[in-house]
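Most newcomers find our protein records easier to grasp once they have seen one. There is nothing in a record beyond a sequence line and a structure line. Getting from the letters to the tokens is the skill we practise here. An example says more than a description, so a record of this kind follows:
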Amino acid sequence: MKDGLRFVDSDMHIMEPPDLFERYLDPKFRHRVSVPVGLDGRPSRGTAGSIVIDGLPTSDADLQQYRKRIRRSSAYATQLLSASRLHDTDRLAFAVERDYDAQAQVMGMDLEGVDIAVLYPTTGLSLIARNNLDPLLSLAICQAYNNWIHEFCQYSPDRLKFVAMLPVHDVHLACKELVRGVRELGAVGSFIRPNLVNGHYWHSNYWDPLYKLHEELNVTWGFHEGVAASYSRFTELYGENRFYRHVASHWIEMQQSLIAMIIGGVFEFYPKLRVGFLEAQNSWAPGLLSRIEWDYPQYRDSHAPYLSLTPREYFRRNCWAAVEGSEPEIEATAGLIGADRMCISTDYPHFDSNFPHVSENLLKNVPRKIAEQILVGGAHLYGFTEADFKKADAARAA
């Protein structure tokens, strides 16, 4: 708990071990994946993009062709949204010391007051983020990650939950892996990037089998962007300027996916689908809903006659959007879309996170009643009940 309030971290991250593929990838595919090695010849942690799959880097960090001087200054700490986001602080020393193991994950949760955390990948954000990847290789990579994260969560299974990585390069393989991930491994949902995949966007009925399975399994569809994607249109637009791409991808890709899900009728035909829009703040949501509603009377009958609800009604029935605690627009956004449709992400242990002050910042920035709904919002997104919280309480007390 945080200050007596239930707290579900809707989007906490892990740091994959360097030898994940050596230990978990199907041997038939290991020659197609190479990772950095240390002096002992063993896998070691490298920079973003240092994993190479089929001869290509897995991150757009490799677009940077020239070294740039990095300036560090304590002045950044005075900025409202920067707060603890400094590379040279010791806020993650405990995790680094333990090499980001499961015990460190729970230690981080306790520092923030998190009852239950839903874990998303780090390197895995971009591992399969490109078009035309061999679907069977995509599946093997997802299976390796899902098997590892399942074992990772066994350290404290009542507090550590995870979403499955899906091989979106073949919708039927993605369905198969979702079923395995949920029924055999205990996944509470899926991790999906909002980007266009092999020409299929989210309004396409190509994805119908996957939408249907999420409903039938009663698990969450978690949209999560991560700038390092070779198939992102913003790479072509903004090239080497990562600042440009980071801002654009995290907001605009989410907006495009919400437009597709609403206007394309996904929420009309799959009314029980729960979708989270994560790590993109959420002040964009009410303005976008107003824009869709502005055009609704003109175009609904001619271009979307299947829609039976207003855009805002679909959002309030099917969607949750995350904040990271210190955004100045949180209270205003809650007034427009409802605090009950919001959740919170610590983004631990990423450099742009405000960990370990995320929940503290939220409680400082908004009235307690609003903070209470946001902190527990992830429980509604992922379908956690009071029984799940009681199990988490028992695990923490053990």
Notes: Residues 73-80 have pLDDT under 50 and may be disordered. Residues 13 and 121 are 6 Å apart (CA to CA).
